[in-house]
Design goal:
30% strand, alpha+beta, globular, single chain, 69 residues, two-stranded antiparallel ribbon, 19% helix, 2 helices
């Protein structure tokens, strides 16, 4: 089984009101948890809620980093 490597992405770099086409993960202790699937839109309400809870970045799989750029 291949181990997934993750790259941090600042919330301010994520496009609002669009389907990003990449899975977004939260880091919890030493594991990464799928937060938002690649087909679910990311919007400003979601970003504000994350920031209110002290989350400043989400993570994407290294394999998706080319799609993000």
């Amino acid at each position: 089984m291949k181990k997934i490597e993750f790259v941090p992405i600042d919330l301010n770099l994520l496009r609002i009101d669009t389907i990003l086409g990449i899975d977004l993960y939260l880091k919890s202790s030493h594991e990464f948890i799928l937060y938002r699937g690649r087909r679910i839109p990311f919007n400003d309400k979601v970003r504000r809620k994350l920031l209110a809870h002290g989350v400043k970045e989400l993570y994407i799989g290294m394999d998706d980093s080319g799609k993000f750029n």
